[in-house]
Specification:
The chain contains 3 helices and 5 strands, in the order αβββαβαβ. By secondary structure, the protein is of the alpha/beta class. The chain has a domain of 74 residues: Nucleotidyltransferase, domain 5, CATH 3.30.420. It has a 5-stranded mixed β-sheet with strand order 3-2-1-4-5, with helices on one face. Helix 2 packs across helix 3.
Amino acid sequence: MAIQMRNKRDTQFSMASMSDMVFLLLIFFMLTSTLVAPNAIKLLLPTSESKTMSKQTVTVYINKARNIYVDERRVDPANLENVLYGLISNEREASVVLRADKTAPVQDIVVVIDAVNGINNKHGTKHKVILATKPPR
């Protein structure tokens, strides 16, 4: 007497659960990639206890080699005011976030502040410069 099984095994593989996993991973990586804002320019920011948050319009970087970048594009200090005005000309009160390396000379920081003040004086705007810092450990 041969023993027969009542339930037959299905030898086909269901791809439905695999596609669910792929979509979940896709959503996870899309969300985490928007949360990470990598800095293409390596800086050691100065530390500070104060916390001032602002909506940034333009980011200006000064690295320890004294190079000035506007939104990751290298800019000559003599042309800085024109480049900044091209980016913030349609706003009345823009925030320029200055990310300067802690070894950068104060004169380079003053160049950026003077460029924004020059735009404010010429066009009657109220743009401001915010110095980015990192919290102390």
